[in-house]
Amino acid sequence: MNDSFCVKGSSIRSKFDYVRDTFGPRAELELKESFSASDDIGSVLDSGLYPFDLYDRVLWAVAERFLDGDVNRLREVGAYSAEKSLTSIYRAFAEGKDFLGFLSRIQLLHQRFYTHGTMAVDIGDGNKSTRITLTGAPTYSDADLQVAAGFYLGVGNLLGLESIRLHFERTDHGAVFDLSWA
Fold it and tell me: What is the pLDDT along the chain (182 residues), one digit of tens a residue?
């Protein structure tokens, strides 16, 4: 078994989709051409597993080339991913526009997209907040964490939450996302 830290190809390909849908087909081609032949970006399959390092380099390239170098703007990419995935292949995860129901199933999504790491979801008192804790992956990237933050916010917006707020921080063993809503 391969013990390297990998992500699903769909995680990589969706970033190229974001660039194409937001900045046009020429921008997508420019992004692809910025990678070396050894990266073999053109052969990435949605169901395949690819090194986390490649995924991280794609995220940083998107930020540098299209988001004014601002890694925080990768939240826009995460929100795009939420919309695309929850209105298509993973729409069952958004069933009934129930954010708490989504949170109860989000760990399954995490396991489908990352080969390492665990996710814990703790719903706060009153069902108006949650803490998502990521641990156990060999590495965590600021770029990937910003995409995750945008994904969680995007899901909340898609599922009709009002005044959703998010704060996250890195920890010694991963990251913690605190979300709250009205």
Answer: 346 999 999 999 999 999 999 999 999 999 999 999 999 998 999 999 999 999 999 999 999 999 999 999 999 999 999 998 877 766 676 666 788 888 888 888 888 889 999 999 999 989 999 999 999 999 999 999 999 999 999 999 988 888 999 999 999 999 999 999 98
Tokens of residue 135, six digits: 């641990």
CA angle 16, 90, 80 (to 5 degrees): 35
The residues, any chain, with a CB within 8 Å of residue 27's CB and separated by 6 or more, are 19, 20, 65, 66
CATH class of 75-180: alpha beta
What are the tokens at 116?
């390492």
Q: How far apart are CA 182 and CA 175, in angstroms?
A: 24
Is the sign of the CA dihedral 138, 170, 101, 14 positive or negative? negative
Domain boundaries of the chain, sorted by first residue = 6-71, 75-180
